[in-house]
Amino acid sequence: MARLLRRGRHDVTIALVDLEELGQLGSRHLVTVGPRPARVICLESVGYFDDRPGAQRLPVGFGMLFPLLARSIRAREGRGDFLAAVHRGDCEGLLEDLVTTAADQELDLLGLLDRRWNGPGQRFTRWVNPLLMDLDRSDHAPFWRAQVPSILITGTAPLRNSRYHRRGDIPDTLDHRRMNALARSLAHVLATHEPASPDPT
After folding, report:
1. Kindly report the CA angle at 15 between 12 and 21, in degrees rounded to 5?
2. What is the DSSP letter of 195?
3. If we measure between CA atoms, which residue out of 148, 160, 156 comes closest to residue 110?
4. Fewer Cβ atoms within 10 A, N terminus or C terminus of the chain?
């Protein structure tokens, strides 16, 4: 993706961060050093797909919180052949571009609207519904708390991949064609989508 972006626009700065496994060290650093990014796309376990019916599990209560996505997954007979795009209302336009571009690459992105507010107060939702806090377990969360528009793109990790964080979690289990499609889709959207004005703070 970085190689593709080199050939794109040069009027914006694109930062790639890692160290999520070390307490979101990279994202927490970027959100505090400034200038804050205009938008964030976080990739979380996006390489594993399973096209078998019933391969995609859903947490207890998921259907009550997110009925549209739950119905869509059931209509696919529970196949893990998609990526979920978790977003807030401030990313609708960017999400639409991503979904359309990914479809052109034969990759399905299914939106999941998290209706919580952006800002530090979202941490209190852990007492309202702990399931919602599972949506904060990656590098987008520090940006949500800082009110930066952000999208989490995920293959749902252990809800689909029984090898997740185990010895069998190796490159040979990954779907490189779909990973390539995602990289190309992201590079195209980042090179063409007009971002919101960055936060000057």
Report:
1. 160
2. P
3. 156
4. C
Select from 83, 72, 10 the least CA-distant residue to 47: 83
| Long-range contacts from 3-6, C-beta under 8 angstroms, 24+ separation | 4/183, 4/184, 4/187, 4/188, 4/191, 5/187, 5/190, 5/191
Contacts of 122 (CB under 8 A, 6+ apart): 116, 136, 144, 145
Closest CA to 138 of 189, 198, 87: 87
pLDDT digits 0-9 by tens, 35-54: 778 888 889 899 999 999 99
Residue 143 and residue 163: Cα distance in Å, rounded?
Answer: 29
Q: What is the mean pLDDT of the chain?
A: 83
- Summarised one tens digit per residue, pLDDT across range 144-171 is 888 888 899 999 999 999 988 888 888 9
| Percent of the chain topping pLDDT 70 | 82
One-letter amino acid at 112 equals L
Grouping H, G, I as helix, E, B as strand and the rest as coil, residue 197 is coil
**Cβ-based neighbours of 55, under 8 Å, separated by 6 or more:** 78, 79, 80, 160
The answer for 156, left when phi > 0, alpha when psi is -120 to 50, beta otherwise, is left
